[in-house]
Each structure stands twice: as C-alpha cells, then as structure tokens.
Amino acid sequence: MTKSVFLFSFELFTLFGQQNYAINSMIMEVAKSTPELILENLNSEEILNMNSKEIEQVIGKRLKLKDRGGLMVAKYKINRAFIKGFDVNQVDQMMGAGDFNFSIVGFLLGFFLSLLGILLAWIFFGNSGLKYSVFGALFNALLIWLAIR
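Predicted structure:
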C-alpha cells in the first residue's frame, strides 16, 4: 500500500514538477510567469481595483486557476497594507512574485507523504514548498480525522 502511494506521488511529482520553456528557432528564452507579467504591467493600486478579466486583458495572457487564487491572496495583502497606512510606492516595494505562488507539488508531497513530503518539499522548493506541504499534510490529517469520525 505504501509503495503504491509512493509511486503515485512520485508520478505526480514528475508530472507537475517540470518547468515550461518557450523555445525560439535560434535562442532559448524562459517564458515569463503570470505574476511577473502582472507586476511589470500594473502597480498595487491597479491590481486592487481591477478584476481578473481586466488583468488578463492588460497582460495579454489567460490566468490559470492557481493564478486567480494567488491574485485573490495578493489583493487581500494589498488591502491590508493600505489599511495599515502604507502608500502605493511602499506596497509596490513590499510586493513580490511570492504573493502569487502556490506550490502544488509541495502540497501533494505533504498530502501523500506527510512528514517525509514536508522534508522533501523544504529541501527542493524552499520556504514556499515547506509552507504548502504543511498545508497538504494538515489537509490529509483533516480528511483522515473526518473519515474516522
């Protein structure tokens, strides 16, 4: 049973853990991620006032589900910063691409491998992987608790 769970999580890791690259005929360029495009084209006040469809039109790229979730979290953080009294320039300096990241691989490692998955996510993906692998392990524990109950 544990061997099949390990193989399944390893397959998910290899499936979702690969980077996508755009290749030109002569040179190889790394495609810009959605958070990078948003931060290049918009400031924090514009992000807060626009909906996701308007942001898609500005950056010229469709937002994926995880990017929409990250955008909602970023809007919440921007709103909290404005409530605390920061101005637009300070909020723009505080914002980083980490506001939009969701490590699905870290979450799946934590979900399927619990403590070992947390350790692996921390080693391979740093603090972002650690955070979401803990979420995955807690979600797994919650599901087990609900199943037992």
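Summary: Residues 104-148 form the longest helix (45 residues).
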